[in-house]
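A note on notation is needed here, since sequence and fold are reported together in a single record. The reader may check this reading against the record printed directly beneath this paragraph.
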Amino acid sequence: MNTAVRALYTVPFVGWALRDAVGGRIGGVYLLLTYLVLALVGLVYHYGYAALITIALTATAACLIGLVILTAGELPGRARRH
């Protein structure tokens, strides 16, 4: 097992939820998403508007990268169909 994954498993709340999510328990996925949302809300509460802007800009970049990947005509390593 990868060292980074082992390190994540040792974090008390996140490790338990991550282990459940990887194991296939549906409740683990929802718990992990709840922790993510609570962490983002906590960041906005603590740092204010700057954290909100940073989260929005990160989401914008992720969406743009997703659109580029989805609209790529020919991806490397893919066989061309005629």
